[in-house]
Amino acid sequence: MNLFQKKRGKYNREFRFRKKDGNYIHIEENFVCLEDENGVPYRALGIMTDITEKKEAEETLAKIEEVRKKEIHHRIKNNLQIVSSLLDLQAEKFAEDNIYDTSKVLKAFRDSQNRVISMALIHEELYESKDTSTLNFAAYLKKLTKELLRCYNVDSSGTHLGLEIEEKVFLEMDTVVPLGIIVNELVSNSLKHAFPDRNGEIQIKLYRELNVESNTGMGSGNRNGSSTTFTLIISDDGVGVPEDLDLENPETLGMQLITTLVDQLDGELEVNRDCGTEFCIKFEIE
């Protein structure tokens, strides 16, 4: 039972009341004391209200908030483990070299930093949206690409980066994290290597197609039922990727990450070298 709270002669308290059937109800009591000319209370006027539904709603909201906090901590833990794994992979690459090139080390650190930023922006979007299950991928992409341009010192008169994506594309976190890293890797590659002596253009497109009955054979097995096929295209009009690029056995850490994460999405990856470079990634969401 709460203690009486006095405010200008008014009193309020809440307490539980057990009914005959053994169940409890929550009661809120509000009353005011009437005093005589000497300030001595002689009568109380008040009302008692059943606030059981209100209390139950508050308890439910508190439990939801607790679950939300646990989910956020769980996702942060998972993403920190991803960061740790990425750094381990980077360290293994350096371990293979007998001679360390300072410039390569600095570039590797910047690449690792951008990968961390791609995941940090996810948590920023989650915090602003108050939703731990899905994220507006369009808003996230705008922030991610803006940050990449800043990291590589690309000003408004330099290389242009265009986005063609619906304003509200909400994806689950298990899809957003790998997609964010993929976009980070491919856009970073274009900014670093596609335009050695000139400015150019980078395009990111994402569109979807609803499949009423899906039986595409993507991934490990066929899928039946309603699903949505997403197509992510990242292209540039630069010098192009090396002709000997082998997607089955990539040599660079960035391409290894891309192919691994596309497999994680149970998707398909294609490269078009006709005009610059175009990476096309298709994946399904049920």
UniProtKB/TrEMBL annotation:
Residues 11-63 form the PAC domain. It is an enzyme of class 2 (transferase). PANTHER family: SENSOR HISTIDINE KINASE, SENSOR HISTIDINE KINASE PDTAS. Keywords: Kinase, Transferase. One of its GO terms (molecular function) is protein histidine kinase activity. It comes from bioreactor metagenome. Its EC number is 2.7.13.3. This is Putative sensor histidine kinase pdtaS. Transmembrane segments: none annotated. InterPro entries: HATPase_C_sf, HATPase_dom, His_kinase_dom, PAC, PAS, PAS-assoc_C, PAS-like_dom_sf, PAS_fold_3. SMART domains: HATPase_c, PAC. The keyword Transferase applies. Residues 71-286 form the Histidine kinase domain.
